[in-house]
Write a structure and sequence with these properties.
The complex is a heterodimer of chains A (150) and B (262). Chain A is an alpha/beta fold and 150 residues long. In chain A, 28% of the residues lie in helices and 33% in strands. Chain B has one domain. In chain B, helix 4 packs parallel to helix 8. Chain B starts with a helix and ends with a helix. Classes of the chains: A alpha/beta (150), B mainly alpha (262). At the A-B interface, helix 1 of A face helix 2, helix 6, helix 7 and helix 8 of B.
Chain lengths: 150, 262
């Protein structure tokens, strides 16, 4: 009887270990759960349009991921969108860097591309002044068509 | 005589309502017994062994083949569009959002749900549950609670195992057999699958676990109240019903949960 009980316990233990391994694989790899806690700092940027950008979108500098979009809020006074960027702690951003909203491929997700500048580095909580809003292909095309018709 | 169609309809509806009400009260009673002490660990471990550990191999095999066939189908479709780089994203999303929880629940309904239902139905058939009542042993606490907890722990875990094995099955077909680059397979997948999708997967697995074990236990537990089920024939009848009802409810719940979350 004791032998059978041990067998059950071994099987349950094995099952639990396989299960926990799978759960942690899903959480860490697929869910981007940051176990070691990649530390980041927040800066903000104002865009005239952040259409299509979602919180959690990637921030790239020179094609490498350096952070994610923390949150997007609407500023009713200026009628602009304020995007809070969580940048990895070891990545400094110049104060005259340019943040532009781009699309990965033609139908891909929106992300923010940082073009480096020069001069001083931004401190946490400061703002990137140079921004380029998201480009709406339809708007561009309609502008082209309707302006040539005149 | 002219009222016969009405009488029949009314009778069926009253019967259905009675059964639904009984099942609802059964679920509430079980949940109440789960959260109130005393808690006993060893029967739960026995159920985890039965529902979880002994299904592990089955889940690994099913997950492997499902992952492989999903990758094969998507590879064939994506080659026509020239976007094979999306293979990882497609396989990952399909497995995490839909197939992982759904097929795990179906496999468990077939393997554990049917046998739990038959076991409880035979207990009822041989008046063992009444005997427990006579000895002042709460049949809910003794029979139902360990199975509920076991299923609710095991099915989400098995669903995770299914997804991970499926992803590597897809990797084998996509990358090893068809030469998709592993970087674009895994990179695309890790970028495409968000926390929201994983949360949906876990919510689905929990909901399916509850439905599966609820239907299996309630069908067996109330065998004696079904006027058309007698003896061993009754046991076979309620077991079939349990499998059918829980499968259909899982499909229904799958659509409802997806439409609420998306």
């Amino acid at each position: 009887m004791a032998d059978k009980q041990t067998k059950i316990e071994i099987a349950v233990g094995f099952f639990m270990i396989v299960g926990l391994a799978s759960i942690s694989y899903i959480a860490i790899q697929l869910g981007d759960l940051q176990v070691l806690g990649q530390k980041s700092y927040i800066i903000n940027a104002r865009f005239t349009s952040s259409s299509g950008l979602r919180s959690g979108a990637f921030i790239e500098a020179a094609g490498v991921r350096v952070g994610t979009v923390d949150s997007i809020v609407f500023d009713p006074e200026e009628y602009q969108s304020i995007v809070y960027l969580a940048i990895d702690e070891d990545v400094p951003i110049h104060e005259d860097a340019v943040a532009s909203i781009r699309t990965a491929g033609i139908i891909g997700d929106k992300f923010i591309k940082i073009t480096p500048g020069g001069g001083e580095y931004l401190q946490p909580g400061e703002e990137i002044f140079e921004t380029e809003p998201s480009i709406n292909l339809e708007e561009l095309i309609s502008k082209y068509i309707f302006e040539t018709e005149k | 005589m002219t009222f016969t169609p009405f009488t029949n309809t009314g009778l069926h509806i009253i019967n259905l309502m009675e059964r639904l009400g009984r099942a609802g009260i059964f679920l509430c009673t079980s949940c109440l017994r789960i959260i109130t002490p005393p808690y006993k660990l060893s029967p739960i471990i026995k159920q985890i062994h039965f529902i979880g550990a002994r299904s592990l191999f089955l889940i690994i095999i099913s997950g492997l083949f499902i992952g492989m066939v999903v990758a094969l189908q998507f590879y064939d479709a994506l080659v026509r569009l020239g976007s094979v780089a999306m293979l990882g994203a497609a396989v990952g999303l399909v497995l995490v959002r839909e197939l992982g929880p759904l097929l795990t629940a179906l496999v468990i309904i077939g393997r554990a749900g049917s046998s739990i239902c038959a076991e409880i139905a035979i207990m009822r058939n041989e008046n063992q549950i009444d005997a427990l009542d006579c000895m002042a042993i709460d049949p809910y606490r003794y029979i139902i609670v360990p199975r509920f907890i076991g299923a609710i722990i095991c099915i989400p875990i098995l669903s995770c195992v299914f997804i991970v094995v499926g992803i590597f099955g897809g990797y084998f077909v996509g990358c090893v057999l068809f030469g998709v680059s592993p970087g674009s397979y895994f990179g695309g997948m890790f970028d495409a699958v968000l926390w929201r999708d994983i949360l949906m997967s876990v919510i689905k697995a929990m909901a399916f676990a509850t439905i599966t074990i609820w239907v299996a236990t309630v069908k067996g537990f109330y065998l004696h109240l079904d006027p058309t089920a007698f003896g061993s024939e009754g046991v076979s009848k309620v077991t079939t019903q349990a499998v059918v009802v829980s499968s259909v409810s899982v499909f229904f719940a799958d659509y409802i949960i997806s439409s609420i979350i998306l």
